[in-house]
Amino acid sequence: MVTSSRKLRAFKKWMKTQGIDCSNALDLVITTNSASVSVIALCDLNEGDLVASIPKESCLTVKTSGAREMIEEAELEGILGLAVAVMYERSLGPLSPWFGYLQLLPYSEPIPLLWSVSEIDSLLVGTELHKIVKDDKALIYEDWKECIEPLFTSASLQLKAEHFGVKDYLAAKSLVASRSFQVDDYYGCGMVPLADLFNHKTGAEDVHFTSSYSELDDDADNEKYGNDNSGPTKRSSHSGGEGFSGSDLESSHSELDDDAHSDKHENDNNETTIAYSRGESISGSYSVSSSVSGDDLTVVEMIMVKKVKAGAEVFNTYGSLGNAALLHRYGFAEPDNQYDIVNLDLELVLQWSSSRFSHRYSRRRLSLWRELDCSGCVSQNSEYFEISFDGEPQIELLVLLYIILLPEEVYAELDLAVSITDGFEKSKGFKLSKKDIILFGKGFESNNSMLLTDGVCAALLALADIRGSLYGSNCLEDDSKTLNCCCLVKEPKIYYSLVLRISERMILEKLRCYATASAKMWTKGGKTRKRAKIQ
Asked: What is the pLDDT of residue 433?
């Protein structure tokens, strides 16, 4: 059996044959208690230091793979095409030009997509990932059945079926999803040797792929990348707003949950989002861009973005991602991740409302909320509201709860006013002077307190309980005790799923604290407010 150290030595030799220039200031080492690789600084590194140069021809892409003709004839594009390229090169074994690279990689990444259904049901129940991972499995199989199985059943291609089965596709998909980069317009997404060995640390990026490539044609890049969801875009406190910029060509990491059919005929820059970040495209912040020394656009470079002391690990970052995103895509989670969120589905809110009022009542109030130009986050035919790491609910949720709890006569007056007002300026807010009821549109973030009535706060507490009940009978304290006794090395699936579940439950606890504190503030200030009484 070939040891990890021998594989690493073989990879280093392979890099030299491919013209991959890795700085002598870096060392690739096998991580203790695992077969993974870490990148360590052998001397002090400074911001701006060039630490690697990688020829694009050494990257495994559809364009460079021996399967290019087969993939293009089958019209397989984006990550689907790249996954087939990875399977094909793996099937060649030592005959593949990328054997020295592929033999270093694990067969698959330990992402939930590769867990058994029973593991998904027991470990992820109640979390943002439970439903989406199960849906993923069905889509991936459909993807394989429609697009890949015909390849190895074709007599003219003479492919070995044992290298292109569902298991092989899942494994290749997991590698592509967690390690691929958007190389450039021509090569598309690809596996970039050496670049994918840097481990992730949230909010602690040491190395980045930068150059002036995107500055050569800013307009073209902005058209292609700046207005889509392929960068690490954010919403609310979960995600933040950086995407493609003029000087940083962010990579378009491939999504596991992309629609199977869109993979076949569309480029994957337009990524599908998933439950834990519905409304956010989960792309890592690996960046690959071309060197422009002279007329050379044939390599990608890795440049330090801050100082790193000798002996320290050099980290990249996959973006400002919550634990659901990290676990779904990369197979791990981080305690106290400030980018965590919890989502409350609109259907959950309507379920609570219908338990107090009639179904018709709830739908009427929802209709008025939409008339005020309000909406939640939308993804995969699901509408939801985000609860931030600090437990603060999305303001659109507060507005909806406020409207649901309006007395009937006030609701009727507001409904009539909205329907007959010509040129109603929703974005600037709306006021019913007779009842002193004020509703705010987009740009009312500073007025949350005006919406936090006793009734709204009680509704938030009820919703936190309903959302928390999805985790089952174990309480937060039970999960915390189990995590303390869990061995990460021996039980990584249990460990990381507990980290995810605990982080989500802690956010719900913060939501409860937020609602309780807001209710007290409302009570203190209630005597001075001229507000209609809320049910």
From this structure: 40
Name the more confident of 281 and 59. Answer: 59
Cα 288 from Cα 212, distance rounded (Å): 11
Could you tell me the maximum CA-CA distance found in the chain, to the nearest angstrom? 82
**Which pair of tokens denotes residue 81?**
């095409």
Can you give 377-400 as a three-state secondary structure string?
EEECCEEEEEECCCCCECHHHHHH
The residue-averaged pLDDT of 504-524 equals 90
The top-level CATH class assigned to 4-327 is alpha beta
Q: What percent of the chain clears pLDDT 90, i.e. is strictly above it? A: 54
Any idea how long the chain is? 535
Taking CA 40 as the corner, what is the angle to CA 493 and CA 10, rounded to the nearest 5 degrees? 80
Burial 151-173 (b: 16+ CB within 10 A, else e): bbeeeeeebeeebbeeebbbbbb
Task: Report the CATH superfamily, name and number, of domain 342-528.
Answer: Rubisco LSMT, substrate-binding domain (3.90.1420.10)
Which tokens is 9 given? 């030595």
Question: Distance between terminal CA atoms of the chain?
Answer: 71
What residues does each domain of the chain span?
A: 4-327, 342-528
Residue with tokens 């061995």: 487
Nearest to 8 by CA among 42, 70, 22: 22
Q: What is the pLDDT of residues 355-383, one digit of tens each?
A: 999 999 999 999 999 988 889 999 877 89
DSSP-assigned states of every residue in 324-377: HHHHHHHS---TT-TT--EEEEHHHHHHHHHHHS-HHHHHHHHHHHHHTT---E
Q: Cα(241)–Cα(329) distance, rounded to whole angstroms?
A: 20
Burial class (CB within 10 angstroms; exposed 0-12, middle 13-18, buried 19+) of 136: buried
pLDDT tens, position by position, 296-312: 478 888 899 999 999 99
Judged by average pLDDT, the poorest of 194-198, 213-217, 309-313 is 213-217
Q: 375 and 383 in contact (C-beta within 8 Å)? A: yes
227: Cβ contacts below 8 Å, ≥ 6 apart: none
CA separation for the pair 9, 19 (Å, rounded)? 16
Phi first, then psi, for residue 208 (nearest 5°) are: -145, 155
What would the two tokens of residue 407 be? 């007395």
- Residue 189: C-alpha distances to residues 83, 220, 222, 282, 361 (Å): 10, 18, 18, 15, 49
The H-or-E segment that residue 37 falls in is strand 37-41
Q: Bridge-partner residues for 386, per DSSP? A: 343
Residue 160 identity: K
Rounded Cα gap, residues 316 and 199, in angstroms? 6
The two structure tokens encoding residue 179: 């390690």
pTM: 0.77
- Please answer whether residues 17 and 32 qualify as being in contact, where contact means their C-beta atoms are separated by less than 8 angstroms: no
Are the CB atoms for 61 and 299 separated by under 8 Å? no
The amino acid at residue 165 is: G
State the DSSP H helix or E strand holding residue 144, giving kind and residue range, or none if neither. none
Q: Are the CB atoms for 305 and 410 separated by under 8 Å? A: no
